[in-house]
Amino acid sequence: MKQLLILSGKGGTGKTTIASAFIKLSGAKIYADCDIDAPNLHLIMAQNIEPKRTAYFGMPKAEIDIDKCIECGLCKEKCRFEAISNANGFMVDPYACEGCGVCEAFCPVDAVSLKPAIAGELVLYADENKVFSTAQLKTGSGTSGKLVTEVKRHLRTRASPDTKLAIIDGSPGIGCPVIASLSGVDMVLIVAEPSISGINDMERIIKTAETFHTKIGVCINKYDTNLSNTERIEEFCKENGLSFTGRIPFDPEAVAAINNGQTIVDVDCPAGAAAKEVFCNTMKLLFKESNAAET
Amino acid sequence: MKSKGVRIAILSGKGGTGKTLVSVNIASIAGKSVYVDCDVEEPNGYLFFKPDNVREEIISVKIPVIDEDQCNGCRKCVDFCKFNALAFIKNKPYVFEEVCHSCGGCMLLCPEKAIREQEKAIGKVQVGVSGNVRVYTGIMNAGEASGIPIIKNLLEKSILDNTFPVFVDCPPGSSCIVMESIKDADYCILVAEPTVFGVYNLSMVYDLVRLFNKPHGVVLNKCLDGENPAESFCVENNVPILGRIPFENNLGSLNSNAKIATRESERYKVLFSSLLETVMKEVLHETTINP
């Protein structure tokens, strides 16, 4: 099974729009949304299936038993995350606590214990034809990388030996959820936007993705909003030996389709037509043998 | 009552809705002000401000280093580490720096005092000046997992600048890193775009600001004629609408070329001035009733 991950660095360039179009065009039976911090793919790709929801436990959180606490202050002193305060007795701020357990280890009277804590929810839409794995991180939670790894694990365990393709929608940025989503994928498609910010962010995500030695392709969304920046991106790809898979125009009909819960290839519009071409080029690249790519 | 040194955070949930557009443009017309870019994974504000006199500081975290000669192989550190950042392989201790949270527990617990800490650079903080605006930028190194120590440093530094209004440009999402960015904020501006994706993610940051009891309002960006799902969300939930930014090619073009619209066009100067005025009124109102 080949795994295609869609990333962008900058947010709002069109990752989910492209991912949903690709799922439609490929008839992919296996797909996931790893943007667990602000998931959207389910808004257009959730089938009429009741999903299976499971609680996701992140790192445990410390709790102080006030009755046992002798107010020595050792926990507060040792905590590197400023998670312990002493206003009306010693207390742990669950949002600041990272669950490292230092306070528990140093409490002389065993008043601190680590308690399991729900940090989100894994959501799996599955029937005999399709599997769609996604999740939602709890507001203000950390450990997002671990949840991304779980989303991908759900996906893999449901894949059958003859599954050829999995499409994964990623998150913006270059930090822990992105790094977790990158591990083990066969190719990354970067959706770039022709703005100075978009170019800067694209260069940073490419640098991050390159450390994983996966194939990288680049396409440009809303290319006609700034033609000189579009040229700069294509030039950048040439100079750096990155495969360029096409341009998609800005298209109000595409926005309307998404707002109707459709993908951009469900309607007859310029963006949809361009997305088809980008899809073909991307698939060629994804399924090309890596040694053939060298020649 | 706070007035001059108010801290205003700008956030959105979904990426690309216009956080930086709003932050940069209102900071640029707020007289003397401070702009803080907390989107340390993909900072963009400095591309607009192009600050001068930039000073830079490397931000590092503490990573354990184990002295193999002193290690007696008791594995206390390995058993303790909740992040699986330590391992004992073939009678040798190993540290996996990428997953270490720098809690210091292993060093504190080692009975042989075989563990010390060493600084590891994860990024930098830059401070520069652009017109009346002091510009703080956090930049995380590619390949690092968490930018939180950089955000903490940015906020600590900028909090000393408490005589002027501070505008904090937040990362997308609604996770720990956004929470860290809004922690000291007196007021939160939520920037929304008129798409179903935008509204869904708006509802998530709306939960976040309510969870932390932050007074807040919404700026509707990329407004077109016709129905606006983000506006309907605000009306349904009784969230104040602070202003509307139209979807215009001219503004899009200035923004995609990293130009500050208020510095280029009188029309946008008027638009963002009126937005800033509304925001400041709300902030003063909120900080008066809720000091």
Characterise this structure.
The complex is a heterodimer of chains A (295) and B (291). The model of chain A is unreliable at 291-295 (pLDDT under 50). Chain A is built from eleven helices and 13 strands. Helix content of chain A is 37%, strand content 24%. Chain A folds into two domains: 2-56 and 139-294, P-loop containing nucleotide triphosphate hydrolases (Rossmann fold, 3-Layer(aba) Sandwich); 59-116, Alpha-Beta Plaits. Chain A is of the alpha/beta class. In chain A, the strands form three sheets. Chain A has a nine-stranded mixed beta sheet with strand order 3-8-9-2-10-1-11-12-13, sandwiched between helices. In chain A, strands 4-7 form a two-stranded antiparallel sheet. Chain B is of the alpha/beta class. Chain B has two domains: 7-59 and 122-289, Rossmann fold (3-Layer(aba) Sandwich), CATH 3.40.50.300; 61-121, Alpha-Beta Plaits (2-Layer Sandwich), CATH 3.30.70.20. Chain B has eleven helices and eleven strands. Chain B has helices at residues 19-28, 45-49, 76-80, 105-109, 148-159, 176-182, 196-211, 229-237, 249-256, 261-264, 266-289; strands at residues 7-11, 33-37, 52-66, 86-89, 92-95, 115-130, 133-140, 166-169, 187-192, 216-223, 241-246. In chain B, the strands form two sheets. Chain B has a nine-stranded mixed beta sheet with strand order 3-6-7-2-8-1-9-10-11, sandwiched between helices. A two-stranded antiparallel sheet of chain B has the order 4-5. In chain B, strand 4 (86-89) and strand 5 (92-95) form a beta hairpin. In chain B, helix 5 packs parallel to helix 6 (176-182). Classes of the chains: A alpha/beta (295), B alpha/beta (291). At the A-B interface, helix 4, helix 7 and helix 9 of A face helix 4, helix 6, helix 7 and helix 9 of B.
